[in-house]
């Protein structure tokens, strides 16, 4: 599995029913848990005072990341993303073997 640093920003379309927003956010939480259990979502952070998230994700390749992982998030249609493929640095103190 390859690792990706993913920045996600969610923008709810103007005029969206608050009940729909709540429904999707609840479903998003459930789906994130499923993706974590499957080994795709490794870590997730929110910069202090901001409404975006930065996560460490794993997938076989970028195609799988978009199609079978990120694309399954209930809020995905409202998200913009920036994806960076990353690999462990030789001096990383937390370095673990990642299969490529």
TrEMBL record:
<keyword id="KW-0413">Isomerase</keyword>
<dbReference type="InterPro" id="IPR011008">
    <property type="entry name" value="Dimeric_a/b-barrel"/>
</dbReference>
<dbReference type="GO" id="GO:0016853">
    <property type="term" value="F:isomerase activity"/>
</dbReference>
<protein>
    <submittedName>
        <fullName>Muconolactone delta-isomerase</fullName>
    </submittedName>
</protein>
<dbReference type="InterPro" id="IPR026029">
    <property type="entry name" value="MLI_dom"/>
</dbReference>
<feature type="domain" description="Muconolactone isomerase">
    <location>
        <begin position="3"/>
        <end position="92"/>
    </location>
</feature>
<dbReference type="Pfam" id="PF02426">
    <property type="entry name" value="MIase"/>
</dbReference>
